[in-house]
Every structure is written in C-alpha cells, then in structure tokens.
Design goal:
Blueprint lengths: L6 E10 L3 E2 L4 E2 L2 E10 L29 H11 L3 E7 L3 E9 L23 E5 L3 H13 L3 E5 L2 H10 L6 E5 L7 H11 L4 E6 L3 H6 L8 E4 L4 H18 L1
Parallel strand pairs: 7-8, 7-9, 9-10, 10-11
Antiparallel strand pairs: 1-4, 2-3, 4-6, 5-6
C-alpha cells in the first residue's frame, strides 16, 4: 500500500465440521486458529493469484524483490500442519487467511540439552553464512556446543573473505540459499573454486520440492528446510560430512 490505506489483522477460533474446498486450498475438518490479514491496496491481478505462493514468482521490477516471501510463508504454514489461501479484487485489496491446528493444552516444557546426542558431535570447521542475525547466533551456539569450530559470515562477500584470509581447512559450508547480492548456490560455486574439498549444506525457508522444481538446486545438493530443529540440523551435518569422509 504505497499510497496508504488500511491493514486489518484478525484472529478467530474456527471449527470446521466438514471439508472446505476452495480454488486454492482444501481444508480438512478440525479445530483451527484462523489469522486473517486484509489490506485496501491495489489488489492482485486474477491471472497472478494462482501463482503467488510459487517460489520466485513476483510482479515487482527486477532487483526489487526475490519472489520468495509468500512461498516461505506457505512452506512454514504447511510444515505446521496448516493451510493458507488468498482472496483479492483488483483496486479493492487482498485478504490472506491462515488456518493453523488449534492446541488446547499447553505444550510440556522441554529441558534444553546442554550437550547433544553423542552421534551428532564433531570437530570439523564449519563456515556458517546466514543474514538473519538471530538465526545465525542460535545455530553457531549449537554448533560450538557440539564440538565444531564455527566461522561466521552475514553475507556471501564476508564468507569469501574468510575463505581467502585463512589457511586452516574448512570442511563444510552451511549457508542460506537466498542471500543479499549473491545466492547461496553461487557462493558455493565460488568457494568450490577456492577450496574444492569443502562440502555444502543449503538452508532455506521453502520446500525442497519447490527448490528442485524451479532449478535452484538439484537432487545431488544437500538441503535443510527451515524451520528445522537443532537435532535435525546436527544429524544432517553428520550425514553430509560422513559422505565426504566415505568418498576419500
């Protein structure tokens, strides 16, 4: 809404007694918390509406957007067992509705393990590239507690400087797939030219099948979909590094 307008957020407990089928979504019966986000903006063209959750689909000019925002939201909602759909009228605005399964009982508190599963521990050096500071901080903390040496970079340029500036081995590049000014895949290719033995594990907020479908990665690339648990991340890292050791 570049020219101003109204943004309305609503929440509601919803009971669906039978399957709801719409143009974009099929929602199974159950108890849900519904989040509605409506605006009075320009709306979405009817021809664009079926594609808005596809990775890299955008109507913005080149350089003004990656087309990953809604696909990331879609991936997180689906991972949570929920549903999302949109309704829009050109010139009037757009409404997004998210349905998440309702939990009536509070989750039991889980004690944070000070030391991870022994089989997930390691001593290798990992180059972590993540532009979200909070995510990067949590990941590096878990990796260090698991025995790894961690080199941190908040963008691709910084990661390349680290690769050039140190002489000690780097065993794994753990990078977000979408970074400012350079994709994670482009970064991995640049680092491979400098250090051919470095293995790569990509992270992203959209699904692995979407990544494959749109040619961002292929089936040979190791991939971790956000949001992920720290245990699943450590397990995947051992899997990738174990494959590297077996290949030697």
């Amino acid at each position: 809404m570049s020219d101003g307008g109204r943004l309305v957020l609503q929440t509601e407990n919803v009971e669906l007694e039978q399957t709801y089928s719409g143009q974009q979504v099929r929602i199974e019966p159950g108890s849900y918390v519904m989040l509605s986000v409506s605006d009075t903006g320009a709306g979405i063209e009817p021809g664009d509406l079926p594609h808005i959750f596809e990775p890299f689909f955008t109507t913005k000019p080149v350089g003004k957007g990656t087309g990953l925002g809604l696909s990331t939201v879609y991936g997180i909602v689906k991972q949570s067992g929920g549903y999302i759909w949109a309704y829009s009228e050109t010139g009037l605005g757009t409404t997004f509705k998210v349905y998440l399964p309702r939990v009536d009982q509070p989750a039991e508190s889980l004690e944070i393990q000070k030391r991870p599963n022994e089989s997930y521990l390691g001593a290798e050096t990992i180059l972590l590239v993540e532009d979200e500071e909070g995510v990067r901080s949590l990941i590096q903390l878990v990796l260090r507690r698991s025995g790894y040496t961690v080199l941190e970079a908040h963008n691709a340029e910084e990661a390349l400087k680290i690769c050039v500036g140190i002489t000690t081995p780097i065993h794994l590049l753990l990078t977000d797939l979408i970074l400012p000014r350079m994709t994670g895949r482009e970064l991995a290719e640049r680092i491979a030219s400098l250090r051919p033995s470095v293995k790569t594990l990509f992270m992203s907020g959209y699904t692995d099948d979407a990544v494959l479908k749109h040619g961002v990665l292929d089936s040979r690339n190791a991939f971790l979909q956000k949001p992920f648990s720290m245990e699943s991340m450590l397990q995947k890292i051992r899997e990738v590094l174990g494959q590297a050791a077996a290949a030697r």
